[in-house]
Write a structure and sequence with these properties.
Length: 251
């Protein structure tokens, strides 16, 4: 007897979400749809809680896009995108790690996607999606920078808007995410973060710190010639290494 798969469906348009659920009930009657989401944040929360076999994600949703959610859950569940993008843009998904359905929903195309993802849930572990998602981003307008971070605060995992981060500070094991409201912890190395953040907004000030330029109150030089960053909403004075002084020549 085949395994009965669990699914989450995320679509911000209620009519389209109900239409998709109705088609899935016909095409994949044994599928258990245990979570319905109207935005990306809710979708990510449901995937964390339910650990589904497959997630049907609208690419363009409020809060977190389907691409954002897929990056966060890469390797944890199979992904089917529901999208209005044309087939040229979605050619990045044709290699098989991700499937897609175009809006308006075509039952025949959805049927093919269901057949493929149903087979995968029975025989394959979810694939890493990074390469396909990077290719999709390239085809649809260039690099998409990090918008949200999942971070630990005490015993909870919370989503932090990147724009709210004042600075990132790394030590040997963890990276501190500092906001006006307090600190959180992530395991992502600073080098990886630097590649994912908008370089016009976040700048390295030394090897262990990245600062949001919008959080800077002023930059000061001490009598010994050293330079420090003072922040609007944090008490820290962050040292700037000499190799990064050039970032503040115009400030």
């Amino acid at each position: 007897m085949s395994k009965r798969a669990i699914a989450v469906v995320a679509e911000d348009e209620t009519v389209l979400r109900d239409e998709l659920v109705g088609h899935l009930a016909t095409l994949w009657p044994e599928l258990r749809i245990e979570g319905l989401a109207k935005d990306g944040v809710q979708a990510l929360s449901l995937i964390d809680r339910l650990a589904p076999d497959v997630a049907f994600l609208d690419i363009q949703m409020p809060g977190l896009s389907g691409i954002d959610v897929a990056r966060q859950v890469s390797g944890r569940c199979h992904i089917v995108f529901v999208t209005a993008y044309d087939e040229h843009a979605i050619a990045a998904f044709e290699q098989g790690a991700i499937d897609y359905v175009l809006k308006p929903i075509d039952p025949a195309r959805l049927s093919r996607a269901v057949e493929r993802v149903r087979a995968r849930t029975q025989s394959e572990a979810p694939a890493s999606l990074e390469r396909a998602l990077d290719e999709f981003s390239r085809r649809t307008g260039g690099k998409k920078y990090l918008r949200w971070i999942r971070a630990s605060i005490a015993d909870e995992i919370r989503l932090i808007l990147v724009d709210d981060v004042c600075f990132f500070l790394a030590d040997a094991k963890y990276t501190t995410v500092a906001t006006a409201a307090g600190d959180a912890i992530i395991r992502t190395p600073l080098k990886q973060l630097r590649d994912e953040l908008d370089p016009d907004v976040f700048i390295n000030i030394h090897r262990s710190a990245i600062v949001n330029v919008n959080a800077i109150q002023r930059v000061v030089r001490d009598s010994d010639g050293s330079m420090e960053v003072l922040l609007k909403d944090r008490p820290e004075r962050l040292p700037v290494s000499e190799s990064h002084w050039h970032c503040f020549r115009s400030m």
